[in-house]
Amino acid sequence: MSGPSDYQPSNPALQWLERRLPILGLMHSSFVVYPTPRNLNYWWTFGAILSFMLGMQILTGVILAMHYTPHADLAFKSVELLVRDVNYGWLLRNMHACGASMFFFAVYIHMLRGLYYGSYKEPREVLWILGVIIYLLMMATGFMGYVLPWGQMSFWGATVITNLFSAIPYVGESIVTLLWGGYSVGNPTLNRFFSLHYLLPFLIAGVVVLHVWALHVAGQNNPDGVEPKTEKDTVPFTPHATIKDGFGVACFLLLYAWFIFYMPNYLGDADNYIPANPGVTPPHIVPEWYYLPFYAILRSIPNKLAGVIGMFSAIIILCFLPWLDAAKTRSSKYRPLAKQFFWIFVAVCILLGYLGAQPPEGIYVIAGRILTFCYFAYFLIVLPLLSRIETPRPVPNSISEAILAKSGKAVASVAVMLVAAGALFLGSMQDARASEGSDKPPGNKWSFAGPFGKYDRGALQRGLKVYKEVCASCHGLSYVAFRNLSEAGGPGYSVAQAAAFASEYKVKDGPNDAGDMFERPGRPADYFPSPFPNEQAARAANGGAAPPDLSLITKARSYGRGFPMFIVDFFTQFQEQGPDYVSALLQGFEDKVPEGVTIPEGSYYNKYFPGHAIKMPKPLNDGQVTYDDGSPTTVAQYAKDVTTFLMWTAEPHMEARKRLGFQVFVFLILFAGLMYFTKKKVWASSH
Amino acid sequence: MNPDASTIAAGAPIEVDLSPVAEGQDIKVFWRGKPIYISHRTKKQIDEARAVNVASLPDPQTDEARVKSGHEQWLVVIGICTHLGCIPIAHEGNYDGFFCPCHGSQYDSSGRIRQGPAPANLPVPPYTFVSDTKIQIG
Q1: What share of chain A in percent tops pLDDT 90?
Q2: What pLDDT is attached to residue A411?
Q3: Residues of chain A contacting residue B119, judged by C-beta atoms under 8 Å apart
């Protein structure tokens, strides 16, 4: 993309093509001989990582769309079934959902790198603004994608975010109606979000082409911020940058795979495993972590319209950055004051992200206001002022000179700082899942925890028995089919045993030729029948509280781990908040209500239930279910078994996930190692 | 991109029978996909709503203007927080009215905003009394 190419293919067929469409020459000049500064560090590989992530999201997204049903009544179920039934559906979904987070993680690093090294300065203003446009499109795409699974957070996130537009004077309400296609968030909203979620990534890809074009016209910036002057200052893109980017991508994949295979729900919200319910608002509506800083800005401004304007200006202000910061020196490496303020700004963003996940009360509101001020002050006061008062250190004359003078200062410290900060930021939303005023469930030793965790077959079979004899009278298990009982990674029944188990159930079928519904014995393909025909019936029969479906209960319940545990959890792969809670709840019934707690008529005291008043009476008693294998028939054992069983119903492919994860990690570590040594070899002559 | 014909048709007025709602109770019905709270207010709640100095409210409106005269015990409001659209919980908060769990807005027993980030009172949907115990919303 930088001028006419003198590339001549040797193959006659390619020569023929090249004379008519010089696409090979374009590729050759853009990605092979393109001169790239010699002194680029690893922060510059994030461009390639982002391109890779965009490709990954589009690829997995297109396949997911083949199995997804964009309808308010079916969307949640179609996502759940694609995870369970589609070949490697769980992998596709994890790749896409975690991919969105990794995409944003990479884009934030990419943006901060641009900020630190002054990559937005003349002559790269348009390049920078195109980047901001991509970021805005990404935010819109990410938001609409989060709505598609139609869980509680999807629905309420959509409600809160679309309502932002109602703050616009005069036309606000009509804009919101236009977004909804109805009088509230509903099926038409879901349909148009699906359509747009499919469209926007291709728009992003288009703007990325412009972004790369602008980059190749202006040339890449570099850590020293001096333009390449001679040929000695640059190296050809291939193989130097290609192999370095390849190594960067491989390292990034390791982090990505950690989430896909071991922590798929770490960045998500447990509430999103509850189907959308327009009549119930979750106690804390928290957006995805990558929107949290902006959400914090929105909430810290007490006026609604001003809050919305503040939130959007926090992003739009980036467009004006090239003109707000008029300093001649590009790189903060040579700007002692700008460097310090940059790190303060990073800290402000991370803290804002943390506050975005906290309930809006007391000290959090005040802190949010101060930090919002700091955020804008960085752009509107600090940067313009610095460019006037700061005396930068002398900049090297050329890139080659900078490399010779390189002190060998490790970037490692910066990297460690960033990773720690990132982990804090990523995990900050975990805090939002507070289990207000309830005791935290005690930890358990689960057979399925950790990177090599497997379900205890005996516990699964006993748990199924407990479910069938106790829970099933009130709770459904509607996403689990009888055939699942014989599938690998499950309770380990044979196909015949599963069929026999199914035939003990009566399943409603029809209509027959006479037009009547009839009952027949269950088949392996049938799903566990629910005890109540609909939610209203369940509600009416249980004193106003509908017993939830248990298929996903261990993933739909959680409790706050608090700081700093959620950071530790990232490294220890702790994912068992749900099972801990379910097991604790089953054992948390107490006859004696503690003083100061009043339990309404028809409710029971439970130590671990949020609010302590639960409508479910104590379900398990010692000796209630007989075990054939000699396991103790105690409440503790029942709770453990049934929780293990419910973990399996929530994630039937967990064993496959962890097994494949291990293989992927072995491959990626070897691959990254090979890439590293290849890179060293390629760059040996250039340092 | 505006609502299609079927969506508009489904948004036609609905009738609600009030006779089963006892004093101090409230019911939630859905109209146009929005929850409508119908509260059978107690004497205390009505007195509280009327004793307030209207000028001191963030969105000044008298209780009389928000209910139908002759049916002061009935408060009918759209149960959507005017801040960002969450559903407030009835009979919670410091004002004997509604409390929004999302961002902490509090409404009084007349559905008027008293505290928190919400800019306006809970809107009153268009409704009329068909008889003493039945209303038509819409």
Answers
A1: 71
A2: 56
A3: 303-305
Residue B16 lies in a domain: no
CA–CA separation, A306 and A300 (whole Å): 10
The candidate with the shortest Cα–Cα distance to A224, out of A81, A398, A361, A388, is A398
CA B106 from centre of chain: 13
pLDDT at A434 over 50: no
CA angle (A456 as vertex; A452, A459 as ends), nearest 5: 155
Instruction: Decide if the complex's ipTM is over 0.85.
Output: no
Query: Is B34 a domain residue?
Result: yes
Asked whether the predicted pLDDT for residue A430 surpasses 50, the reply is no
Q: Nearest CA to CA, how far is A135 from chain B (Å)? A: 24
What pLDDT is attached to residue A255? Answer: 96
The structure's pTM equals 0.89
Identify the CA nearest to A265 among candidates A475, A566, A46: A566
Structural domain total, chain B: 1
Alpha-carbon gap, residue A679 to B5, rounded angstroms:
62
Q: Are A668 and A253 in contact (CB under 8 A)?
A: yes
Q: Which domain holds residue B116?
A: 21-137
- Name the residue among A280, A305, A434, A278 with its Cα closest to residue A357: A434
- Whichever domain contains B47, its CATH number is 2.102.10.10
In chain A, residues 351-370 whose CB comes closer than 8 Å to chain B: 359-361
How do residues B8-42 score in pLDDT, each as one tens digit? Answer: 888 888 888 988 888 888 888 888 888 899 999 98
For chain A, say whether B125 makes contact (Cβ under 8 Å): no
* Residue B5 within any structural domain of the chain: no
Specify if B90 maps to a domain. yes
The strand pair at B106-107 and A518-521 is best described as unpaired
